[in-house]
Amino acid sequence: MTRESTLRFGAQTDEVTSLLRIVNMVRTGEAATRPEIGRVTGLGRGVVTQRVDQAIEMGFLADGEYGPSSGGRAPRTLRFRSEQGRIIVCALGALHIRVGIASLDGDIVEHAHRAWDIAHGPAQTIDTALEMLDELLARHEDVPVWGVAVGIPGPVDFETGRPVAPPIMPGWNGFDVRRRFEQRFDAPTWVDNDVNLLAFSERSHRHEEALDLIFCKVGSGIGAGLLSHGRIHRGANGAAGDIGHVRVRDSETVCRCGKIGCLEAEAGGWALVRDAEQAVSEGAGGALARLVESGEQITPEAISLAAVDGDALAISLIQRSARLVGESIAALVNMFNPAVIVIGGAVSAAGEVFLAEVRQRVYELSLPLATRDLSIVRSHGDEKEPLRGGAEMVREQLFETTFPRWFAEGRPLIRDVMPEAS
């Protein structure tokens, strides 16, 4: 589309609005044929035909199969052309990197995983992630990247894409994560907290538009993603849900963030490893002691598995962690009143050993009305969940938040989408 036609097209507000709506209706499955579009929008047949033809010409829609007949001629279905672009997702954790390629409908086409310590710093970590992505992309046809999602295990200023004093990420404070990915892929990039990506993934599974949900991740660290009426609540500066650094009563333990008595320092995965190693050094027996004797390291996953297998030390560590996490979640329940709490992360792999304690503390400490319809469940535990969540976050930003700014170009451009370029 030429600049002149773009400007002329952009000036026609009603036309633009109805065209955007039609594309999104087909994309989300709200309507699949021209007659359905007419019934939902109230637009006449001629207007619908004109808008659909424009959307096809711009590359957003294409004709599909014939739909069922209601007595006359069978209507031709429409489909959103999800193959015309791809989404790149990079989910960084404390001890791993996950990367993936997704289509515009959110399906993960391919993914890869590598053990990695986030403390290596931003330059090395992002270089490694980009190498992993290059390996994936080399196995696929050259399709334009429409958006990039990056998840990191720490607080993020969502507007700038920069980490803000992340406790377990030395050297990352203020680093321009977005810029590296935009330079590499020439596509708009959004950087978010890793737990928010998991909350997005849960939303996509549940297909509920007005979902009120807390996703609490108890891994090496602890954090929460908050969904309010289906929308991520990040807070004024992106720090919403950082419950890992809520103070635990009577605790004097020094946290990795430098403060005293944080929940993470008492109940996070790294705290459980610390306490398990101390107990073993003081003579505790069982599965964790045998692990050390064999020369292997104790990990949060190992503690969770040992608890499931009935190891007394592991069970005591997991249950104490769950009680403390449950107390903090209870405060969120009273303030936020979610319908669902989803527990994920390596420590939650202990299953009911962990969940039962969380449920007990939440129901003991929360208001009856706030827990009347509350369910507390474990996450799917699929390693692709953060990748699906990242793709979902990009889809929301592209097709709900910024679509009117770039759709006349036919594909999202950094200058049209990102705040600093607008």
TrEMBL record:
<dbReference type="InterPro" id="IPR036388">
    <property type="entry name" value="WH-like_DNA-bd_sf"/>
</dbReference>
<dbReference type="Pfam" id="PF00480">
    <property type="entry name" value="ROK"/>
</dbReference>
<protein>
    <submittedName>
        <fullName>ROK family protein</fullName>
    </submittedName>
</protein>
<dbReference type="InterPro" id="IPR036390">
    <property type="entry name" value="WH_DNA-bd_sf"/>
</dbReference>
<dbReference type="InterPro" id="IPR043129">
    <property type="entry name" value="ATPase_NBD"/>
</dbReference>
<dbReference type="InterPro" id="IPR049874">
    <property type="entry name" value="ROK_cs"/>
</dbReference>
<dbReference type="InterPro" id="IPR000600">
    <property type="entry name" value="ROK"/>
</dbReference>
<comment type="similarity">
    <text>Belongs to the ROK (NagC/XylR) family.</text>
</comment>
